[in-house]
Structure formats: C-alpha cells, structure tokens
C-alpha cells in the first residue's frame, strides 16, 4: 500500500518490479497490483517463482490484472532506463544475500541503471542490521512495519514507512514508536 509515492511522477507511469524468490518477491507482486490500481503500468520480472501457494496466488492475480511478466531482464541497462520510470527492488530484502541465485546477475544489472530505484523494506544486497556497502543504492526506501537498523545507512532522497497496520501488542513488544499517519494514509515520509 506504499503507492502511489509522490516521488514517482506520472509523466511516464511505467515501473519495472523486480521480484526475488522469497517473501520480498511476494511483497513485490502485491506492490505491482497496487501500482496497477493507481494507474501505473507495472511490468514484473520474476525469474525464480516460488512454489508457495500464496505466492502462486499473487502471481495469478497479477496475470489476471494484465500485468506483463518479462521472460528475461535486459543486461543492456539503457533499455531499462528508456522503458521505465522507476524500478521497484523486491529482490532480496531482509531474507537474502547477494550471492543467492538468480539474484547476483540481477543486482549486477540494477547497480548500473540511472532511473530511480525504490527498495522495499531492506535494499537488496544489504544486511538488515549493518547496511550495505556493495548492495543497491536506492533513491527511495519503503520500510515495512518499521525501519530496520540498516535504514540508518540509507542516503537516498526519500524514506517512507508503511506500518499503520501493526497491532498495538506488536508495537509494545518491540518498543516501536510509529509515526503519526495523517487521515487514512497507510504510508508516511520520515
């Protein structure tokens, strides 16, 4: 529910959503659905699909919304720069490392693009606790639930948190102090 973000202009509403095989990839599929609902034109690259039934359902929902899936990620970064307004990084998040296949070649390509990267929760290639030299350098970070420790290393243009949905007992247990969400907003800029 982190979209539309004010940082994504609609002059060219095309967005490439790059999904990894685990939970962050599933979040990317949900993100693509939301983008489509807000009149963006998402395209998904999801090279290693999870056998998890829930993830398969998310994939089916995207297909039924006529969201196209790429069969390969162009290695010529200029093709990506010309075709899309932004890239959503849902490759690894907090659950993986850069060497995870097929993620390493994907991240190698994404490190060279010039259009904005929006990372979901933890930028791919980053350690959730210590940050990420060598990982992606996103322009926008959307922290899910609460910012992870690595967010202290984030140097991009905008940082958002999408966590209004957290139950109060979870907030107390982890001593979270969520920001104030104006009106019915589910996302707030930090």
Automatic annotation (TrEMBL):
Transmembrane segments: none
Entry superkingdom: Eukaryota
Annotated ranges, domain YjeF N-terminal: 1-178
GO CC terms in record: mitochondrion
Molecular function per GO: NAD(P)HX epimerase activity
InterPro entries: YjeF_N_dom, YjeF_N_dom_sf, YJEFN_prot_NAXE-like
Name the record gives this protein: ApoA-I-binding protein 2
Name of the gene this protein is made from: Yjefn3
């Amino acid at each position: 529910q982190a979209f539309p973000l004010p940082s994504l202009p609609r002059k060219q509403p095309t967005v490439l959503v790059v999904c990894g095989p685990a939970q962050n990839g599933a979040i990317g599929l949900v993100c693509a659905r939301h983008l489509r609902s807000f009149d963006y034109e998402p395209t998904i690259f999801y090279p290693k699909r999870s056998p998890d039934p829930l993830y398969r359902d998310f994939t089916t929902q995207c297909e039924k919304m006529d969201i196209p899936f790429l069969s390969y990620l162009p290695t010529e970064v200029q093709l990506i720069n010309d075709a899309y307004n932004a890239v959503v990084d849902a490759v690894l998040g907090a659950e993986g490392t850069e060497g995870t296949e097929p993620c390493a070649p994907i991240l190698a390509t994404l490190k060279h693009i010039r259009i904005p990267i929006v990372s979901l929760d933890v930028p791919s290639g980053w350690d959730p606790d210590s940050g990420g030299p060598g990982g992606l350098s996103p322009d926008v970070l959307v922290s899910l639930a609460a910012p992870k420790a690595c967010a202290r290393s984030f140097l991009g243009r905008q940082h958002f948190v999408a966590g209004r949905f957290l139950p109060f007992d979870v907030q107390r247990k982890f001593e979270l102090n969520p920001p104030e969400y104006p009106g019915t907003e589910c996302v707030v800029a930090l």
